[in-house]
Amino acid sequence: SAKANGKGCYQLLTSELQQKAMSRLQLENDLRRAIQNQEFSLYYQPILSLPNSNKLGFEALIRWHHPKKGMIPPDQFIPVAEETGLIIELGLWVIKTALNQISIWQEKFPCFSEIAINVNVSPQQLMIASFSEQVQDLLSDFNIKSHQIKFEITESSLLRTGSHYIEVLKRLKSLGIQFCIDDFGMGYSSLSRLHEFPIDTLKIDRSFIRRIGSNQGEIELIRTIITLAHGLGMDVVAEGIETKSQLNQLSLLGCEWGQGFLFSKPLNSVDATQYIAALLTTPRKQERVKALLM
Ligand code: C2E
Ligand code: MG
Ligand code: MG
Ligand code: MG
């Protein structure tokens, strides 16, 4: 009967919700343990200047090596880390690890002393009262210049913020730290507020790049974003470049930087070091070497 069906549905729904809550709780517990046991590592994805790839930077991307479940992608645990506040500790670890990597590369590749790494930061991190002091202390501990680290903030998180947040950005900016607006063009856009934020670089979301070639309108959209960014004094990174033709189009549009599988997937520390070494030892790329900084 309908009544029995209704009850059945209700039970199904509760058990589904229970299931969700359970796995969410388990993930949270797992995360706490993982932070204790240091189950995380950073991968580094090259960001190259267009069209000649004569400048290089990296974006640091966190990886969780779960002892039983294997590699868990950040999209699956960063939101939980944000909801639970664990992102504060985890985010600090990310910054430390990136700075440590810069100092290792500086020593190994002296001609490379100005190498920069982009680090993704969550709004919660920026809202800690002591955040800018913490960052300043870490920079001096590792003897890294403030322009060698760039913070990526997603467009959607920027939009959820008020005036206090803008003050924090400006304070960090006055220390010399630069900001990228990440995943630009996803979801609701911040066009009308974009000029309020002290942003240096705009990263066009992968979803736009993927649709290049499908129709002319897509190119016009990207052209408009690039013009807007340049008009506001920002340079542009195109995310998720996978094909030569996407690369060519973006170069023609005056996009300054590219990142994506066409150049390289995110690399672990050893492979990223190898990537730099290979650039430095390829004879025809000797010319590039002098300009290898982002
Ligand atoms: P994101 O910052 O936009 O990072 C770019 C994502 O696109 C990365 O996924 C990268 O592996 C992927 N990607 C790069 N090039 C290509 C391509 O050519 N094709 C395709 N299909 N994908 C490409 P990943 O590493 O899974 O990171 C996902 C998101 O997790 C990041 O998006 C970022 O928002 C977040 N995340 C990663 N690490 C951290 C972190 O340390 N802290 C915080 N708060 N968030 C992080
Ligand atoms: Mg990013
Ligand atoms: Mg991005
Ligand atoms: Mg993204």
UniProtKB/TrEMBL annotation:
<feature type="domain" description="EAL">
    <location>
        <begin position="24"/>
        <end position="280"/>
    </location>
</feature>
<protein>
    <submittedName>
        <fullName>Response regulator receiver modulated diguanylate cyclase/phosphodiesterase</fullName>
    </submittedName>
</protein>
